[in-house]
Automatic annotation (TrEMBL):
Signal peptide: none annotated. One of its GO terms (molecular function) is BH domain binding. This is Bcl-2 Bcl-2 homology region 1-3 domain-containing protein. PANTHER family: BCL-2 RELATED. Keywords: Apoptosis. Belongs to the Bcl-2 family. GO terms for biological process: extrinsic apoptotic signaling pathway in absence of ligand; intrinsic apoptotic signaling pathway in response to DNA damage; regulation of apoptotic process; release of cytochrome c from mitochondria. Pfam families: Bcl-2. GO terms for cellular component: mitochondrial outer membrane. InterPro entries: Bcl-2-like_sf, Bcl-2_BH1-3, Bcl-2_fam, Bcl2-like.
């Protein structure tokens, strides 16, 4: 579901720095929510891994084209 939401955020092909930041904010908010819930805290590393993979696969070419971070 997390990766699907991230994909939907970029589905119109209009990638920009605001959307990149929004993806990190979404991942951070989700991880924080999981962290504060004893039944879900084990999912924090999964969110981190999925976000890193999404950025690596879907955003890195665009980030490099923009001159990097």
């Amino acid at each position: 579901v997390f990766v699907n939401v991230c994909g939907e955020m970029l589905s119109d092909g209009q990638l920009n720095w605001g959307r990149v930041v929004s993806l990190f904010a979404f991942g951070s908010a989700l991880a924080q929510h999981f962290h504060t819930s004893p039944q879900l805290s084990h999912l924090v590393p999964t969110v981190t891994k999925l976000l890193a993979e999404f950025v690596s696969l879907r955003l890195t070419p665009w980030i490099v084209k923009q001159g990097g971070w």
